[in-house]
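Notebook, p. 212. Picked up where the previous page left off. The plan for this session was modest: take the two constructs that came back from the sequencing core last week, fold each one, and keep the raw output in the notebook itself so nobody has to go hunting through shared drives later. Recording the first one now, exactly as returned: residue sequence, then the structure token string.
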Amino acid sequence: MRALVAPSILSADFNNLGKDIEMINQSDADYIHFDVMDGVFVPNISFGIPVIKHVNKIAEKPLDVHLMIVDPDKFVEPFVEAGASILTVHIEACKHLHRTIQLIKSYGIKASVSLNPHTPVALLEDIIEDLDMVLLMSVNPGFGGQKFIENTYKKVQQLRSMIDNAGSDCLIEIDGGVNYDTGKKLLDAGANVLVAGSFVFSADNPKEIISGLKSL
């Protein structure tokens, strides 16, 4: 399976966000990734429903929305209405994960669960067949541009084994420190979707970087 690429607009130029979205529209990217932070679950605040709603008006790629927030259940409907095609919640933020996943799916969109670097993939064993995607954090959530955590490769291999044994079509997405080197190793370990922020938006030719990631 060819790599799927999701540029993260956390690293975009918010003075020219429309221009960056148009760049993604014209690129080989598969999704537009949004890191939504509340300043409680993670030590930073990013953006929320209004930004996603406005981006959705001009986006030609599905919106991949990653909720790094507490009590995500009460925000599922607003983010779906804003345009999310995939909604990711953190296992660490959900008291009743199965209920949350079923709630997301009830709106006819894809449901995904994210794990922080310290959280073992084994915790997903009883719900993996209900998931469309798992997002593994390869940095500690909250800020862009962090150094990649090497243990992620092992977690990808463990998760890939779990998914294959379950006969599931669940995708594995990686967020944090993705570049050509880490991206190739992640795909070899069994990942499917690469989130890339600063690696894309700090480049002189972002579309070329996106194409390069897809061809790893």
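Okay, moving on. Second construct, recorded in the same format:
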Amino acid sequence: SQKRLHERTEENGGTAPVITSAGALVDALKIMKAKKIAVVAPYMKPLTELVVDYIRREGHEVVDYRALEIPDNLEVGRHDPARLPEIVRSLNYADADAIVLSACVQMPSLPAIARVEAMTGKPVVTASVATTYMMLKALQLEPVVPGAGALLSGAYAD
């Protein structure tokens, strides 16, 4: 969809970068060289499985995942990020190269990223962090945001 949307901007003479959260997430995993990942998503199980299948089709092995099964979008936005470390503890992440703490830009996760990285010893990324990274890159700005996890730490800046 990201490619198709960009093509529409070109067709209309307003070439502009287009970033989607799903595209940003898989691009970020490639930048991080994360082949094996564990995933947390707020979605119901069928939608979470679609997300996991998409990530797999993009060349990543999903070693484990959790569908939080929050049926109401407003409740997704109210999910307490302090619960995320405990959720990650229930994942089989030992063989993962990275943890996707939130596959949804709407679910708050930023306050838990550093704690989950410290707890697991794994780099942590979220759909929001990945989208931020890709937006900064598209705008030719330095993709560094202190306290926002491995991807935005500066370790992956050109």
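Notes on construct two before I forget. The CA atoms of residues 24 and 131 lie 5 Å apart.
Flagging for discussion at group meeting.
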